[in-house]
Amino acid sequence: MKKIGRNFFSLVWTGVRRNYDNLDDNIAKHLGETDADNPVEIHLSRMFSEVFKRHSKDEADRLFIVGTRSTTPSLRKVSSRPVKPWFFSRVFTVLAVSFIMLILLLFLFKSNKAIPGLIFIGSLAVPFSLLMMFFEINVYQNISVLQLLTTFLVGGILSLLVTMTFYMMLPIRSEVSIESALIVGITEELAKCVVIIFFINLYKLNYIFNGVLIGAAIGAGFSVFESSGYVSEYGLATIFTRSFQAIGTHTIWAAIIGGAIILGKQRKHPFTIRDFFTKPRFFVFFLIAVCLHTFWDWDIPYTGIEISLLQEFVDVIIGWFLIFVMIDAGLREVKTLQGQQIVIHRTKRKPLVKKG
């Protein structure tokens, strides 16, 4: 039986490995304005290939000199090459090392003064690093660091205020049943969605990568402040679990919603209440984000920690897959707006680019 199980797992894994790189493109090609029969050359399997390479200080500096009138590139100069973010890993390393040093300060020297820093850095490390990744991925380079930090701080707090306003109007029970988990999922994702729409309309953004970045900023802010608040309720140990769990929660869900808002609105027009209810491409992704949140919060009866960890693992995989779909759709959008049509032959010859 063990041999049959291993052979079955090997067969399934081989199929997943062979088809994964195309699956996200098969979904994304139906989201954009391109002909669905024209694939785009995107190598998500090599997306993080630059993380372990050496980069100069000048390369890092150039990432942050964006979003101004003189540094925002024209559409013609926007890169449509596969995105390869790397700086976010340096941000995470700095925050992780800081977190470890604060742990040493607390446990070796019994210094309670380290606790506020431990809570803040622990809450910040993963969400803010993810935010930096989405900042790098925004190939349009039309959102400045000031706008990003404003959205992260103000948008994160504003989304919490909207959430608490909704909670006052809804029946939330203390037990984590499927009904309560669904109400929480709808409430929090709707609150973040409202704030994301506000900032997208405020900044007059029109590109998928822009929506993903604004969503990630608001989701990261929400995550940081919520995690910090949970410590006061459940104790310091909470920060050790929520810090690494943030890789697949609010930042990712809000980024999906942000990209979906751009997909759902008419280009160069604000997102309206009518768009919320009449645009299937937006509404499907919004409902998926709600379902991911609900599934994460749902405490399945009569199950242990193993099932809970499996829930989180499945949630993270699905969430990141949808992020890859958004990245794929975003690169398709660049090529469409630049008037290019990508043709990929099934042989090993280089793809042809036709001006159209």
Automatic annotation (TrEMBL):
Residue ranges that the Swiss-Prot or TrEMBL entry lists as coiled coil:
none
Q: Is Membrane among this UniProt entry's keywords?
A: yes
- The organism is Lentilactobacillus kisonensis DSM 19906 = JCM 15041
Single Gene Ontology MF annotation: peptidase activity
Q: Which Pfam families match?
A: PrsW-protease
Instruction: Tell me the superkingdom of the source.
Output: Bacteria
Q: Which UniProt keywords apply?
A: Membrane, Transmembrane, Transmembrane helix
Q: How is this protein named in the record?
A: PrsW family intramembrane metalloprotease
| Transmembrane feature ranges | 87-109, 115-134, 146-169, 181-200, 207-225, 245-264, 276-296, 308-327
